Amino acid sequence: MIELRGKQKRYLRAAAHDMRPLFSVGKQGLTENWLDQLGEAMEKRELFKVNILSNSDVTPAEVKSFIERQTTIQVVQTIGHTLVLFDQATQKENRHYSVAVQKI
């Protein structure tokens, strides 16, 4: 796990700016299955957004603590009901953002 500094977080926020949310948190809320799917997608992409739907019973702060407590995924930014997530891929061929982040 990379411990992110300010400049690195800024780079990741800028890289995620034009992305659309890949995952959503809805009525089912936060489940282990959802977290497993999040981890699998993180392995392939390293950086993406999660949207918290208006019908969800959880707050962005609850989603952030749930993800960070149970995984190595880091929440880089929270804007309204959208979170930007980052985690280094274990396979080298999937590492795009983490390579750039380590150079900053």
UniProtKB/TrEMBL annotation:
Residues of the CRM domain: 2-98
Single GO molecular function: RNA binding
Keywords: RNA-binding
UniProt xrefs under Pfam families: CRS1_YhbY
Top-level taxonomic group: Bacteria
UniProt name for this protein: Ribosome assembly RNA-binding protein YhbY
Species per Swiss-Prot/TrEMBL record: Weissella diestrammenae
Gene behind this protein: yhbY
